[in-house]
Design goal:
Helix content: 25-40%
Order of helices and strands: EEHEHEHEHEHHEHEHEEHHHHH
Oligomer: single chain
Number of helices: 13
Strand content: 5-15%
Number of strands: 10
Largest sheet: 10 strands, mixed
CATH superfamily of the largest domain: Periplasmic binding protein-like II
CATH class of the largest domain: Alpha Beta
Structural class: alpha/beta
Length: about 400
């Protein structure tokens, strides 16, 4: 029997979206290149207890989403440890999985950043190694709200890096009514925002618009529910859609090229910060529910620099480092009292990063299930109908 069975990704590779958690705004990005950064404040995030053999070595290879770590935090780690960080980026979880699966423990990467719902799949196929929590003392800084998730009980293979949710942003000069729900999103897309609406290029998220509007389970595998979603999304909503693009919000807001955009909260914030008139735009955490996703630090099977990997992850859970991180990427990093620290530091548009508890309580984590292939088919039909 094969020790590591082939990876089964529940969607064809050509249909998988390339999602960047923090769309580029002309800022810092590294793809396939090492970081050689200048100094910054010496907020050391590691401790001697996090160094298994007392020496970290000279190299660490990290595989993460594009522009998803504050360069100052990477520089700080390098300066403090003497470890050279090579930071490469991927565009989707499927790209990450394909890379690790193809190399079977010889990818050369030490630290990887998968989204939570993919972790069971990766663990089952031997792509991630168990974590030694004794080497991560800064786990004590994590808020228990973001640990022990259903896809990794006990955080055996992952540590929270950042989490966010999905909603939408709209131009209040075009859409005069106040929008609060997924039903409102659909009504506006068919009405004043027709031809000026963008949705994510993610099949789960797009189908969730209809399921959420009808107060159905967003993870539903019920053929009748998915049939109804397909009928509406393809025949009614698709003609109103101008773009299927996960990153359009960061340019669509400052340029005013769209009136209604489904978006991740942190990306919407980046777009509003870049706009000359941010008050023109409003972000909605829609009712009744929306996706709660979490990206995570993990150790790739076959990691060649595990000591440096543990020290790096521990460093990123340092409270000062985490504050800089959330200000840079625009997503909560799961550290205790982070909101209070960010407000004290006069962070801009904090409400988009720290939604109220009533919003958190109603969010739903996406699940990879038997309905995923059908969702991809629905998205493909929508794109064809819209001419995208």
């Amino acid at each position: 029997m094969e020790r590591n069975p082939p990876i089964k990704v529940l969607a064809p590779a050509a249909a998988i979206p390339k999602i960047s958690r923090r769309a580029l705004l002309g800022g810092f990005a590294v793809v396939g290149a090492s970081l050689a950064l200048g100094g910054c404040s010496n907020a050391k995030g590691f401790a001697a207890s996090a160094i298994p053999n007392g020496e970290l070595g000279r190299q660490l290879n990290v595989y993460s989403w594009g522009d998803y770590e504050d360069p100052d935090n990477i520089s700080d780690f390098q300066d403090s440890t003497g470890v050279r960080v090579q930071l490469d980026s991927f565009g989707s979880n499927e790209e990450l999985i394909a890379k690790l699966a193809a190399t079977r423990g010889t990818s050369g990467y030490d630290v990887v950043v998968p989204t939570g719902l993919y972790i069971p799949q990766m663990v089952a196929n031997g792509l991630l190694q168990p974590l030694d929590h004794s080497l991560l003392p800064n786990m004590a800084n994590l808020d228990s709200t973001y640990t022990n998730q259903v896809w990794d009980p006990g955080n055996k293979h992952s540590i929270p890096k950042a989490w966010g949710t999905t909603g939408y942003v709209y131009d209040t000069t075009v859409i005069k009514d106040e929008l609060t729900s997924w039903q409102d999103f659909m009504t506006a897309a068919e009405g004043p925002a027709s031809g000026k609406t963008a949705v994510l290029e993610d099949s789960w998220e797009v189908v969730a618009i209809y399921l959420g509007a009808k107060d159905m389970d967003m993870n539903s595998t019920d053929p009748a529910a998915l049939d109804a979603a397909e009928k509406y999304l393809v025949e009614t909503l698709a003609p109103s859609i101008r773009a299927f693009n996960s990153n359009v919000v960061t340019s669509g807001i400052p340029q005013g090229t769209f009136a209604l955009m489904q978006a991740f909260n942190g990306d919407a914030r980046q777009g509003m910060l870049a706009a000359e008139d941010p008050e023109r735009w409003k972000f909605v955490f829609p009712t009744p529910t929306a996706n709660l996703w979490m990206d995570n630090w993990a150790l790739a099977t076959g990691a060649q620099h595990p000591d440096a990997a543990y020290a790096f992850i521990n460093h990123m859970m340092n409270a000062e480092v985490a504050l800089r991180e959330v200000e840079y990427i625009g997503y909560h990093t799961g550290i205790k009292d982070l909101k209070e620290a960010a407000l004290a530091n006069e962070m801009e548009l904090p409400d988009l990063v720290f939604p109220p508890q009533e919003v958190l309580d109603r969010l739903t984590a996406a699940v990879l299930n038997d309905g995923q292939e059908r969702r991809v088919q629905i998205l493909n039909r929508m794109q064809a109908k819209a001419g995208a």
